[in-house]
Amino acid sequence: MGQLTKVSSWGYEGEKLICTSFKIEVESVRKVLLAQEDSDNDEKITVADKGPKSFRLRTLDHAPDFDIEGTYCLSTLLQELTLHARRGERIAILQGALIAENPVDRTRRRIEQEFWQSLTRRMDQSLIKIVANDPKDYGDDPRPRIYVPHALTEQLAYYQNLANQYPGLRLEVLRLPPVSEHADMVRIRKTPGILALEMEKHDGILRGLQYIVPGGRFNEFYYWDSHFTAIGLLEAGRLDLVEDIVRQMIFQMKYYGCILNANRSYYLGRSQPPFLTDLVLRTYKRILDNDPNKARDFLKQGIFAAIKEYHQVWTSEPRLDPKTGLSRYRPTRYGIPPEVEPGHFDWVLEKFAAKHGMTVRQLDDAYNSGKIQDSEMDDFFLHDAAVRESGHDTSYRVEGQAADLATIDLACLLYKYEKDIEWAIQEVFGGTLDVPSDCGPTASRTPQYWNHKAASRQASVNKYCWNPEEGMYHDYNTAKQRQTQYESVTTFWALWSGIASEEQAKSLMQKALPKFEYQGGVVSTTRQPREPHGKGPPIRQRQWDFPFGWAPHQMMLWDGLQQYGYHDVAKRLAYRWLYLLTRIAVDYNGMITERYDVTSFELGTKEVVEYGNQGCDFRGVASEGFGWSNASYTYGLTIIGPELVNALKKGLRCEEALNTGCDDRLSLANQRTLLACWNSQYVDFDFTSYR
């Protein structure tokens, strides 16, 4: 046996590991490592495991053995071994630099070089076996299906040819009726499938445009997920992919009548929070640097689609409330959602089944086919569909009343549309834009039209949603004609959209922010009584409620704070979130998840909350993370700036990072304690002694 070198930190000894490589037999080392360290048998090495947290790495080339110590380095060792194994390598050269890689660098690198690629899709021959799969298909005959818009005969023929080429895939290709007939889609409820997306020809052959999926059980194009993920993709230089994402949104608006919740047949008629103009403008500004003519045309097509979406989806009935002039999440199609797990609604269906003298399954079939009518069920599932369209599925804030709520979030998003379109027409198109007749009225061609719309909406929001005593915005219930009392982080969307006055912004900072800020960022809702709208399902928590924080809320708040000049607060909140994500990645085998408990530095998935926490279910090494959480990490690093990035690499908590000057370089003295900080199995590790 060679000389033993002990590695326990990124300090002086860690440099030896960084400069070392190991020739090893992959599977044998991996098996021994898991047998020793993975005490709960989930093929991860985390702080929850009870192993010795010290592993002697033996090599095949008589080089010195190494003791790898601590949760973090043991987990990165497992990750690298798993990656070699997946490539089919029996013998591999293991790079010590990857085992001792700083967790901030490692997380960013894997997001940009691996996760984005794993989450990228095309609906063509290259990926058809992956994209057509739907883990949410609970029907009697689960199989890959593709629905093609009625007018796209060439796409229909393309997919029919694929079905013939791959008979083992059992791919079924179906033609949708014209968009005007989507209200009567009962016949396809039992045969769910993916909806075709944009394609273009390359050398005479159809090829699907790229898009991104969130990850986990969500293997399709989601509207607001794609927007936030695209922000991270822009930071990674993936302008090509973001351009395609926007084109996919334009395609959906044209052929499906709205930008869908996601491109599955059971989402027809249901959208998600609208972010098209924001993404179009972000992308336009990136294209403009290299190709002004292309940028102008791209912007024009995006604005046309946004104007059409604005008028035909969000500011017309049933979503528009004529009395307030505000809009609500109120999908045009609803029923018992087929995408939920079997038994998800049994708690409510049992009552109706007894009422109609049926079993739950019989009721499901009879109600969805229209054989029975029940206004109480209609009301329940209308609100349920509205909850899902709101993106906040689920939360006690919206449960049981979502279709009646003029939410502050939707009001802010539509205000942003109005201001974005006004800016584009005024600044890029010279004060007038010839809007196609199928997109909007002739008057919508001028910036004055959109300025008036924005001013009117701002007045309505101030009248119905602003609460001056509390210094924050609330949702407005259009049926009960009063504000709700639920406190939601979406109150800060007013900063992101610019709808708040300077005085309102100041009130939000002084009165509202302290209610939402926790050690890991901002929480979705404050602590409030549960089930305010009647008996709910037997779940103690909702995933969009306290104590959970989500990437979109963080990212929008960072942008909003900067827009109103609160740059230091934006950095503080971004740092809190980044520290939490890094802490979880360090302690839980490189994991990046859909949501986080921002009140703790522990993994917020110890008990199943609703649909589980996507991003947790992997073996050995994560390959996807989760779309918008990945994006929030790379975007957040740009918000905090180099000095605080350096502090994050040191493992400093927010309070220490902000109160201690951080050099641009890591000194050797600090390096000696870095891995000890991040590698500690104790969540409440005291960093103060390392200042």
UniProtKB/TrEMBL annotation:
It comes from Pseudocercospora eumusae. The lineage of its organism: Eukaryota, Fungi, Dikarya, Ascomycota, Pezizomycotina. It is an enzyme of class 3 (hydrolase). Belongs to the glycosyl hydrolase 37 family. Residues 32-59 form the Neutral trehalase Ca2+ binding domain. Its EC number is 3.2.1.28. Keywords: Glycosidase, Hydrolase. The keyword NADP does not apply. One of its GO terms (cellular component) is cytoplasm. GO terms for biological process: trehalose catabolic process. This is Trehalase. Signal peptide: none annotated. The keyword Ribonucleoprotein does not apply. It catalyses: alpha,alpha-trehalose + H2O = alpha-D-glucose + beta-D-glucose. Pfam families: Trehalase, Trehalase_Ca-bi.
